[in-house]
Prior knowledge:
The radius of gyration is 32 Å and the shape is rod-shaped. The protein has helices spanning 6-18, 21-28, 32-46, 62-81, 103-120, 137-140, 185-190, 205-212, 226-234, 244-247, 280-300, and strands at residues 51-54, 57-60, 95-100, 124-129, 146-149, 159-166, 168-173, 192-196, 218-223, 240-243, 254-257, 266-272. The protein starts with 5 loop residues before the first helix and ends in a 17-residue tail after the last helix. By secondary structure, it is an alpha/beta fold. It is 40% helix and 20% strand.
Amino acid sequence: xxxxxxxxxxxLDALLRERSVSGAxxxxxxxxxxxxxxxxxxxxxxxxPILVSxxxxxxxxxxxxxxxxxxxxxxxEVRSVLSPSPEIDISQVRRDFTIRANEAxxxxxxxxxxALVTSAAPGIRLRFAPRPDKRIELLREATIxxxxxxxxxxxxxxxxxALFDDRFVGVARTGHPLLETEITAERYAACRHVVSxxxxxxxxxxxxxxxxxxxxxxxxxxxxxxxAVVAVAAASDLVGLVPRSYHLGATGRTQMFDLPVASPGxxxxxxxxxxxxxxxxxxxxxxxIFKEFPGAVRRLEQPATAGSLVADRRxxx
Length: 317
């Protein structure tokens, strides 16, 4: 196997099809002398003359006749395996994809994504998985096909494509006293707060920014998700903190406001393992998401407030 030369298989198929050294040479774009040397190698490898002279023509030996169709089939299969993936008819594809995303993304965009996918490819089904477990191993093992969210620092081996930029905003019930006048850091800190943390933490990065101003806030409640933050804020005087993109899709029972202290932005990315990079169906799904979701976020803005959400198209398919 160490000395296997697939070129010999291709040459043998041409010789058996053409029954002529010169004909096979022309078919493969080789010189007649080069094909003659290849025939010698084949005779040595098979222990059979393969083609012998019969007047001005050449005829195949019984062994060559016996293996001719097998050789042709193998050659076709090898060419197929070693050729680029054929164009796909996405409407005929039958396949399931698992997408890891947080609850807010699912609530906002899952229905839209389902409609887009089933319209073009009714045989493709989507499965959304929760995002608390961000292990890369799940992408390596193809347990997860695509990860949508903030790409963690240990994802260096992954391929990534930015969908949109996001930032945190405050959220309070419509009519909350905080919203009646200018929202200063002092007035914001004086409110009682609800935060989102799957690990039960009462501290968020904004507390560091408040501390730099000599301020602190009182966190009364911790919930496991941003949808829960909005629900609590809508039903109480607690003030919450959520990604702006999420609150854009919330009901009119709450209002968002710009934070009175600096808060770093972040990028929502779709990430996948390199093993799926060239897969044509996977590429189609990534392209669909990349084209749709920056626009979907913009459509939610009624109207847009300070800051714009810009899609990073540096890694477009």
